[in-house]
Amino acid sequence: MRSTAIKVPVPVGPTEAFRRACRYEWRHLTALRSTWILLGVVTVLSVLSGITILLDVDKQQSATPAAVADAIAWTPLSLQVPALCFFMLVLGTGPVATDLVSGAARTTWLTVNGRGTAYAAKSTVGVAVGAGTAAASALLGALSCAVTLAATGASQPAWDEIVAPATRFVVWMGCWALLCLAAVAVLRSRSVCVLFLILWPLLGERVAGALLGYLPGLHGIGNWLPFAAGRAMLTDVSAYAGEDRPFAQALIGSHLSTSTATAFFCLYTAAVAGAGIWAYCRKDPKKTY
């Protein structure tokens, strides 16, 4: 009889375990039909968003960089958050919710060598998908704007002035992916998480800011709340014409400059992400790697 040698287990280091976990998360995400359906919808809407620039073309047949930036970022000024967030919310909450709700968590932890590694991989892949989708959407939106303006005979904006707001949009969406993951991990419910992430930026934060403003020493606190800072990060009020600035400022709800708002929104995201990884790993037994 042929003897079969028993293979000796080979220890896997943290770096290799993390790489395998990222590959595991990526394969799982790309294997879902819903992922490609959502990305297809995003592609179509990105192209259509460029056509909406015609609504902002003035009598001189020119579009301002601020108007083009809003079109590329799916008009966060009027929607309070970028419309792309509502699509990324589905992809962003899925990886953690699938583990915690469907009972597949233990399989994931055994496969990738621990909860910490699993959460880090989910976060990395989530940020990559969120930021990558935003970058592709911004590029398609910019191309659509350029073609639309050229087809109607309108003059092109200063495209070099679009780079900074488009970059902030990509960073914003990367942060949004982390917020989605962390919210599911903390709340332990996908439906509650989705409702919270829709209602809080649109309504809840403004109500909270108004109420907190009545407390001594907290006047103007609404300027520093997370999504108020996020709106100020996405929309540079100084780029608007003088008569449009008060209306834009009222919609944003924050007087922070774009640089300050970007720093604060990223800090808020880091804090929430920390809470998320703590919630995800709090029951994890101590492991030796």
How would you describe this structure in keywords?
289 residues, mainly alpha, globular, disordered C terminus
Structure description:
70% of the residues lie in helices and 0% in strands. It is mainly α and 289 residues long. Helix 3 (65-72) crosses helix 7 (115-151) and helix 8 crosses helix 9 (190-212). The longest helix is centred in the middle third of the chain and has 37 residues, at 115-151.
User: Which stretches of 5+ consecutive residues score pLDDT under 50?
Assistant: 284-289
The count of β-strands is: 0
Largest β-sheet summary: none
Helix amount, in percent?
A: 55-70%
- Described by the principal axes of the CA atoms, the overall outline is globular
H-E string: HHHHHHHHHHHH
Overall mean confidence score, pLDDT:
82
What is the number of helices?
12
Terminal CA distance reads 38 Å
Q: Whole-number radius of gyration?
A: 22 Å
Strand-pairing-aware structural class: mainly alpha
Strand content: under 5%
